[in-house]
């Protein structure tokens, strides 16, 4: 008759089973490497006050609406077109105004880096890191601002919720409007 003085389970070798094949996912927390400190994130961005930015938009909007009015006047003087219904005329004018705004922003902001409204409001486009904004980034900013507007203006309204008062296109391109110093 065998004598059991201790359980057999303690005689098993202590070999850890291989980790499950989960593509690098593990249950234990992984120590994250210390990230490098970047100035644009630890220090709050010094974006321009909302009133100053709205003044720049108002000046630019006045220029675009003046151009649209001149375009409409010349168009209706040259062509013999019966005025369409008021509802379709309003839709056409809103679409044209949007196209003029995008063209204005694209041509001036991408190719010169500023607009008359930004100059008069003493604003400049800056990157989060403080470097000059290259043309490619300015192009993406204008295209991202179209996205901010086409989402029923939610991209622009986001600035009222954002801690740095930045819109979607600011966050997407990592640029913002700063006062000229």
How would you summarize this macromolecular structure in one to three sentences?
The protein contains seven helices and two strands, in the order ααααβαααβ. It is mostly helical and 181 residues long.
Task: Characterise the protein shown here.
- The protein has helices at residues 39-42, 50-78, 86-112, 116-120, 135-150, 154-157, 168-173; strands at residues 123-127, 175-179.
- It is mainly alpha-helical.
- The protein is 50% helix and 6% strand.
- α3 (86-112) runs antiparallel to α5.
- It starts with 38 loop residues before the first helix and ends with a strand.
Q: Count helical runs.
A: 7
Strand portion: 5-15%
Radius of gyration equals 29 Å
Spatial order of strands in the largest sheet: 1-2
Computed structural class: mainly alpha
Q: What are the secondary-structure elements, in order, as H or E?
A: HHHHEHHHE
Helix content: 40-55%
Mean residue pLDDT: 83
| Major β-sheet annotation | 2 strands, antiparallel
